[in-house]
Prior knowledge:
Distance between the termini: 14 Å
Number of strands: 15
Radius of gyration: 19 Å
Order of helices and strands: EHEEHEEEEHHEHEHEHEHEHEHHEHE
Largest sheet: 7 strands, mixed
Strand content: 15-25%
Helix content: 25-40%
Structural class: alpha/beta
Amino acid sequence: MQAWQVHENGEPSEVMRLEDVERPTPGDGQVLLRVRAANINFPDVLMVRGHYQVRPPLPFTPGVEICGETEDGRRVIANPALPYGGFAEYAVADAAALLPAPGSLDDAEAAALHIGYQTGWFGLHRRAHLEAGETLLVHAAAGGVGSAAVQLGKAAGATVIGVVGGADKAAVARELGCDVVIDRKAEDVIGAVKAATGGRGADVVYDPVGGEAYTQSTKVVAFEGRIVVVGFASGTIPSPALNHALVKNYAILGLHWGLYNTKNPKLVQHCHEQLTELAARGAIRPLVSERVPLDEAAAAVQRVGDGVTTGRVAVVPTRKNGATA
């Protein structure tokens, strides 16, 4: 089979190589899956660069989120078991963690319903307890993680303010349903949020960016507001001033979705059921901005790393007859 291999850490466009390798052999409790679509996540970029907390042995195949097909023909969502990731024709995954792919979504959309939407659901509902009528501020609202939070916030009845970088991304955020869109490259984020909320601020802030975005969050979070920290796409990990949280009476909430797979897997299943129902009635639909063939995966991973994409970029392997999976 064909699979992208990383033999040394570095920039994806430089170190990812498409090679012919043997199909992986499932271990105990694992299954072999034919990859129908693999979505590119920022952790894939970090993993290739060697900057992620998970460091699979070299060489490895990146790709942490797929829609795959079991040997008996079931269409499932899975997180591949590294080093046999999803940017390949076949991957392996833990059988107990497979989730049924929603029939209302195509392969790329189904794969995208997993990490980003589960993170959004846990962050907004489990951690921040977002309520209808509250104001939700989403940083990087046009990205893969942010776009999921925007849709989930709207589905929960919140007023959603999306912060983006650039006019093109602002247009995407509006299409996603943001009530207010702020282009951080052309506007003062703090002033714009205060103007949009009558000076009150946002009840919940969803931050996958860190750095300056987190600093802005602390200045616009409302009384008894909640800042949900889900990642550091900016590359800068903030150092919160806890005296500021005390004086302004807000909460800083961390969200590491992967822990729920081991700490409370039944809640992951419950979340998937909720997401499947929302997708079935059209309340959410993953934004897949690009579908690229397997041989273009390295360039696509690089674009995600460079921050120039919107929504999710999906790698779709082709079958031998040339049709997309």
